[in-house]
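Q: What structure does this chain adopt?
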Amino acid sequence: MNSFWIECLGWAATCVFVASYFFAKPSRLRAIQMAGALLWITNGVLIGALPVIIANTKVDRYYFNSDVVTFFTSGDVTDLAGSMRRLLESTTARREQAARASLFVESYSWKVKQDEYLKLVDHLSLEPSSDYTPIDEAAAD
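A:
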């Protein structure tokens, strides 16, 4: 894949993540943010980025585990620096985490997730059923 498309993938990940904030329903917000995160991870693998270090938040713990990312305590710059140092100083830890992250990314590849994604798009784009009543009409009753 040439660098133009890899850069486009990174920008697409950013756009997906930003778009997630237009969803009020938490489950949709998380699903869209997960899609953005997976695009970022894919972009990182394609550019050969160092393994990811992320804040130990509830959302990140929901989607990832310490096999594929290195967590640091949110708001603790000393812990962040320590996490960075540990990965920089240990070639073995970096390579092992990168290998596990690659497997994680492969398990969420388009080839693997295509049917699931297309079913979701079909479900979200279906016309409302005949028994659907808009909120404004329901309030008028």
